[in-house]
Amino acid sequence: MFDTAEMLKIFQRYRGDAIVIPGRGGRHWNKISTRPSLDLPLGDPAMGGHASFALGLALARPERKVVLFDSEGDLLMGMGVLATIAEQGPRNLYHFMLDNECYATTGGQPVPNAKNVAYDAIARGAGYGRAYAFNNLESFAIQVEGILRDPGPVFVAMKVVPEVINEPIGRRARWQTRTRDQAVKDLQKELGIAA
Amino acid sequence: MTEAQQAILSPETVLAEMKKNGVTHVVWLPDSETNFLYLLMKAEPSLTLVAVSREGLAFSTAAGLAAGGKHPIILIQNTGMMEAGDSLRGWGLGLNVPVVMMVGYRGWTRHGVNTDTAATYTERFLNAFGINYYLVESDADAPRISAAFEETKKTKRPVAVLVGDEYHGFH
Predict the structure, then answer these.
(1) Which of A34, A94, A170, B24 has its CA 20 to 30 A from that of B136?
(2) Which structural domains are found in chain A, ordered by start?
(3) pLDDT of residue B6
């Protein structure tokens, strides 16, 4: 397992002008990103939908790379999205997944079969042409540039250290600096999309 | 058009409404009685079909498409819409997605006693979420589909079209 923030710092070097949906890595990515107008730190609009949101965005903007940092808890809620992504085959979609083996935001309870799910194998089985799994940061650092250079859709599972939160939702510190609506509007403005 | 033709909602009419209103992507979960519409949509070069495996994924997919400047429509059944409540809340309403969802109104009946709980809860569900809806039963109701599109643009919210064709499929 490795640290999500450290991984994101390495990813940032190769991000280029990709649109980034940081998912549950958003609290870290907000401090690391140098292109916030190309970020969509949506937090958690409704669990299980990040990958299909990223798919929609990738289909809408085929000229632009879309990078998603999904989570295993989200993916488990709607694993059928892997088949839809594979069928659509967006060459600009890079589907990274943070696997901390638990529901960190609800106190750290394990996800089903937490330590034994091969998400990269599932993605490959669903039809992704490329799928990777990383358990140490050194290997990730060596390969990430190549992963982002080649066309998608690609799936990258990463074992990350859980950052368990036990505070009730109402007492948690808010990390978002923009509303979701504003983040979408900023992206549209950056890309010249008429709302 | 004959009276008999006007009495049903034809797939050609639905497709024409999509094209008229600038739909670019159809996000849908197929069901057994929409195959003719599927074949028409598949043959239409201006449309991209995105088949999802669960209705909740339709709302997040549509949200991504809309964020990227495209104009999706969602095509699902009422049963799946109800299962997708949290996604409708978080992605559809939460991100102010101007999307029409055409919902097959399974169990709907104008002339008898409803015996299908899918129909019993459909409008109650939409009312609970504050989603406006238009009932469409035949080709004569087609302008209501355009009205729904207009409403999504004005309100930046999902609007439902309930397809209540009791005898000719679509649900």
Answers:
(1) B24
(2) 4-191 (3.40.50.970)
(3) 57
B9 phi/psi in degrees, rounded to 5: -100, 110
> Domains of chain B: which residue ranges?
3-73+83-109+122-163
Residue position matching structure tokens 């696997």: A99
Give the pLDDT of residue A176. 84
ipTM of this complex: 0.95
Q: Does B29 touch chain A (CB under 8 A)?
A: no
Find out if CATH 3.40.50.970 is the number for domain B3-73+83-109+122-163.
Answer: yes
- Model confidence over A39-64: pLDDT tens digits? 999 989 999 999 999 999 999 999 99
Q: Is A58 on the interface with B (CB under 8 A)?
A: yes
- Mean pLDDT value of segment B145-163: 97
Distances (CA, A) of B79 to B55, B63, B103, B104, B136: 9, 21, 9, 9, 18
Choose the closest CB to A46 out of B27, B70, B91.
Answer: B91
**Which value, to the nearest 10 degrees, does the dihedral of the CA atoms of residues A178, A156, A144, A189 take?**
-30
